[in-house]
């Protein structure tokens, strides 16, 4: 699970609980200027995720860490695909973040409103 | 959009397909899976190109306004009478505009701005073509859109045209 919040001009994603072990990250801070949007996307978890390096991928259990797909680096922290939110970035180490949040609709609104 | 590596999909066609999808179903009823399946776009490309589902929605809405509402505004500007104006507004493809007005505009101020200015353009075209004051033109547009919603009960459009077009 991840907590997504806005702090000033930054988007802050905090990885909670044991997930931070699997994901090898406890938080990510991204300037809002480099955030292109957020989308609730339960279906993304059933797509190929690419090569894991580093992190954990136990299919059907947890997808966490850094994955490489089609030349892009994607950060994952998802156990329950129905709560997956995709945050698209620009000019960042990661092309996008795919994180599980408590309330996808509220998270999408939070991020999209911060970008307007 | 800067020229770079050619995209692996036809962005123009994808946006046009998104107009159809978003115009036929409420925003929350269109999933990213639906978009991926109907637009011929890989998920990664969709995110890379449009940033988010909302980003694509805004592009699709603006495309609908340019492709479908724009020509209606031009046609209305040449309408000789109320009956013609009502018929033009009844026949035009306004699916996404009308759905956006009820579904997304209340929740999204960028959508609300687009919808408001599109409706204002219809009002102005009707006012200029028929030589009526702005408030009456807005009433005619509102009636035309209401008739679409209600399916023209009791031939209400014809009754309105008879009342407003004294010579017909």
Automatic annotation (TrEMBL), chain A:
> What name does the UniProt record give this protein?
Bacterial Pleckstrin homology domain-containing protein
Automatic annotation (TrEMBL), chain B:
Q: Which residues form the signal peptide?
A: none
At which residues is the DNA-binding region annotated? 31-50
Q: Could you confirm whether the keyword Transcription regulation appears in this record?
A: yes
Entry-linked SUPFAM superfamilies: Homeodomain-like
Xref: Gene3D superfamilies:
Homeodomain-like
HTH tetR-type domain boundaries:
8-68
Q: Which PANTHER family match?
A: HTH-TYPE TRANSCRIPTIONAL REGULATOR YJDC, TRANSCRIPTIONAL REGULATORY PROTEIN
Q: What is this protein called?
A: TetR family transcriptional regulator
Protein's organism: Umezawaea tangerina
